[in-house]
Amino acid sequence: MLIIKNNYSRIPTSICDACGSEFILSPEDYNTEGSWTCPLCGYTNDKMITVQSFKYPDDFKSDNAAKIDDEKINEWIRNRIDYLRKHPNDFMTFETSGDALVVVTHEHNSIGYNVYIGRDIEEAFILED
Ligand SMILES: [Zn+2]
Known about the structure:
The protein is of the alpha+beta class and 129 residues long.
């Protein structure tokens, strides 16, 4: 039988961050740190992290190069509260850049907002399995 379209099994592919080429990687394509080198452009791509495979803190990175000042944090908090006022069906909103994270939540019928500020945050992009 010749398969024309496969809707049954999903084969995860990896895309080179540098040249955009797409590959199906085998376990032997990964180096000991879990990254892989593009055979076309030579770029070393980050480890592919999935919902099943991720591990904190190993797979998380912090981007603390850009230090967000307090004035900007105050602006983000006001903007996020404005957002929740305009979107009453939403419960949570956030803003992040550089070393900072602002999360604002609003419980239904609450008289106010819970505001969380994170500094030196770590993040990862986790692929769906
Ligand atoms: Zn490449």
